Amino acid sequence: MISKLINEIVNKKAPVVVGLDPNLKFIPEHLKKNATEEKGETLEAAAAAVLAFNKAIVDATYDLIPAVKPQIAMYEQFGIPGLIAYKEIVDYCHEKGLIVIGDVKRGDIGSTSESYAIAHLGEITVGNKTYRPFDEDFATVNPYLGTDGVKPFVDICNKCDKGIFVLVKTSNPSSGEFQDKDMEGRPLYEHVADKVCEWGAESMDGEYSNVGAVVGATYPAQGETARRLMPHTYILVPGYGAQGGKASDLKAFFNKDGLGAIVNSSRGIIAAYTKEPYKDRFDALHFADASREAVKDMLEDINGAI
């Protein structure tokens, strides 16, 4: 699967992924009004507004980008209707030819971890029929429980040609409370990076592994270390834009050939119509056009830096 993602990145000259992380405060009023007029003030209406918002952004940007990253919590907050909307946007993005990175941050042990892997990346048989429940192409995985929690995902990756991104050094301010703690003379995240390489060796797909890593743009020095420790690991880089990560800090996340990393922006793209320099050019009715311009600006910024 990682080779498919790389091909899309190369073909579109776009080492970026758009995070589809909708919050009701980002949704234009006309979409919320349309949904509530049809479904009332219900969870179903909220999910419908989110889905309409997502689809419009995908329609405006799919030709520019290789992948999207929906964050499942933003859908789970609306209960079952939200999860249905999550599945619908996964399928819609596939129809548009996009690779879907499910930001689900799952991680458990044994049969529980296997069940998470099946739900998001694998297949399950019911009677004589086989289904792919959520059917993302990649999923984010929390490695805190060790190999017991990650290996079931690697097995499913090998069986179903899928991929994962393992949390190594996350972009949030308090990540260092655990990830930077000294362990045998090295920070903990470096030990996790070593394990990512070990797990990844079991699922190589050309020069890179289907087992990728998450390293935040907000920590460029650690990104440089992670790149050195994981030469055959693709790095998913959150934290660009709204969280403070700058394009000038990203070069170290990439290999010399310009590959090896894919940079995520969520609010900076999907809520662009509410932010400078777009809010004076695009009103709420044209929110998706603002998102397209924000993607173009992000591509120019990142490609210029790397």
Short description:
A hairpin with a 2-residue loop joins strand 4 (124-126) and strand 5 (129-131).
Task: Give the helix/strand layout.
Blueprint: H1 2-12, E1 16-18, H2 29-39, H3 43-61, E2 67-68, H4 73-76, H5 79-95, E3 99-106, H6 110-120, E4 124-126, E5 129-131, E6 138-141, H7 147-160, E7 163-169, H8 176-179, E8 182-183, E9 186-187, H9 188-200, E10 204-205, E11 208-209, E12 211-215, H10 220-229, E13 235-237, E14 261-265, H11 267-270, H12 287-305
Write up this protein.
The chain has 306 residues and is an alpha/beta fold. It has a single domain (2-305), classed as Aldolase class I (TIM Barrel). The chain is 45% helix and 17% strand. The chain contains twelve helices and 14 strands. It has helices spanning 2-12, 29-39, 43-61, 73-76, 79-95, 110-120, 147-160, 176-179, 188-200, 220-229, 267-270, 287-305, and strands at residues 16-18, 67-68, 99-106, 124-126, 129-131, 138-141, 163-169, 182-183, 186-187, 204-205, 208-209, 211-215, 235-237, 261-265. The strands form four sheets. An eight-stranded parallel β-barrel has the order 1-2-3-6-7-12-13-14, surrounded by seven helices. Helix 3 runs parallel beside helix 5 and helix 6 (110-120) packs parallel to helix 7. The longest helix is centred in the first third of the chain and has 19 residues, at 43-61. The mean pLDDT is 96.
